Amino acid sequence: MSVITNRVEREAQLATLDPVWARIRAEAQDASLVEPALSAFLLDSILSHNTLEAAVGHRVASRLDHEAVGSHIIAHAFAEAIADQPDIAEAVRADIAAVLDRDPACHRALEPVLYFKGFHAIQSHRLAHWLWASGRRDFALYLQSRASSVFGVDIHPAARIGRGIMFDHATGIVVGETATIGDNVSMLHGVTLGGNGKEEGDRHPKVQRGVLIGAGAKILGNLSIGCCSRVAAGSVVLSDVPADTTVAGVPARVVGKAGCSEPARSMNHLIEGQSPDR
């Protein structure tokens, strides 16, 4: 049996077992033909790996690489995390699907894995959170610091984040220690999930599933952002937000319904009744 036949059979089997990874590999192969100058990069980042988890761990580690802690150490820790907590692998795939579904600038599953710092920041946090929960807090804090420097995204390792998360552009996102972010949440650049004052303990926002948070919004204190609600860009939220509503302003107030059943997927930032051309 020829090498080509073996490869075709392996790729067909992979498409059945892990269609996301099969798609990314196929896109990387196509990209290497279109742009031969990136062939070595694509081979190192995607095509030389056996699994999506290994490729993501390698790519994130390569971006976080520093003489103080080399990329091989970070990639090894990511592999340890996946082995100990397989749910991380499922979350990675859900995050890729979220970007493909919600970002009109993303046309291939390959793109967030290789290029999008919001996706990379989330995966860095998934590793840091696992390290934090495993008692390896100095390594977790190192990754937080390094990710903040490289990606411009600062997430405390103790913060809890669900799956299907998209950080669009991501620059300037800050998430505090006791914050939680539910499944299928979309956040734009400049969002802060911060504390209010100097109190200790549970002091950061709890963002429920399906929420859309616009650019530059500041959500401060131990409060709840209800399921499938929207926080308008530039708002300052200081009290609980009901489910299925839109809040806007400084301080934020309810200005209408969310406008759809899944704001985080629609990515529609218009306030109810506002015309798109105004």
TrEMBL record:
- Tell me the classification of the organism that encodes this protein: Bacteria, Pseudomonadati, Pseudomonadota, Alphaproteobacteria, Hyphomicrobiales
For this UniProt record, the keywords arranged alphabetically read as follows:
Acyltransferase, Amino-acid biosynthesis, Repeat, Transferase
**Domain Serine acetyltransferase N-terminal, first and last residues per copy:** 20-124
Instruction: List the GO cellular component terms.
Output: cytoplasm
Taxonomic superkingdom? Bacteria
Q: Reaction catalysed by this chain?
A: L-serine + acetyl-CoA = O-acetyl-L-serine + CoA
GO BP: any one term = cysteine biosynthetic process from serine
EC number assigned by the record = 2.3.1.30
Q: Record's Gene3D superfamilies? A: Hexapeptide repeat proteins, serine acetyltransferase, domain 1
Q: Which PROSITE patterns match?
A: HEXAPEP_TRANSFERASES
Family stated for the protein in its record: Belongs to the transferase hexapeptide repeat family.
Show the Pfam families listed in the entry: SATase_N
Q: Pathway, according to UniProt? A: Amino-acid biosynthesis; L-cysteine biosynthesis; L-cysteine from L-serine: step 1/2
The protein here is known as: Serine acetyltransferase
Q: Which GO terms describe its molecular function?
A: serine O-acetyltransferase activity
